[in-house]
Design a protein that fits this description.
This protein has helices spanning 72-81, 146-151; strands at residues 6-14, 24-36, 39-46, 49-56, 62-70, 88-97, 100-107, 115-120, 134-137. It has 157 residues and is mainly beta. It has a single domain, classed as Hypothetical Protein Pfu-838710-001 (Beta Barrel), CATH 2.40.320.10. An eight-stranded antiparallel barrel has the order 1-5-4-3-2-6-7-8.
Length: 157
Amino acid sequence: MHVMGEEIERKFLVRSDRWRETADSARYRQGFLSTEPERTVRVRVAGPRGSITVKGKNVGARRAEFEYEIPVADAERMLDTLCKRPLIEKVRYTVTVAPHTWEIDVFEGDNAGLVVAEIELGNENEAFDKPEWLGDEVTDDPRYFNSNLVENPYRTW
């Protein structure tokens, strides 16, 4: 879990299920207190853990990120009473393609049908292997930001 700093993340659509053969998974429920591009504030329950994350505006694949663990009961209450609707519900799978770990999100609810893979990198020019199940890159397409999937769910596209 990041305490402070920035993340460098690239995002891709997924074109096949071949990644499922080696994947681990956890159920995620998350919502947003703010979806303004300059400052998103996300509350998340991932398995048995709660967190709150503040992210800055994307500049290419880079943005400021501050994430903190919070009691899961507090996270659940914020999700139920304070966060914008609809909530983002998804199952996150992790797949290692050495030396990197891919996170594949299979969305549910208002975003059902959307499957996105993300990779976090140490720098913007870091090389990585692209598995054959990856589709088009959508890093620079704001429609795929989780904060925008609240305002404009995939089912409405």
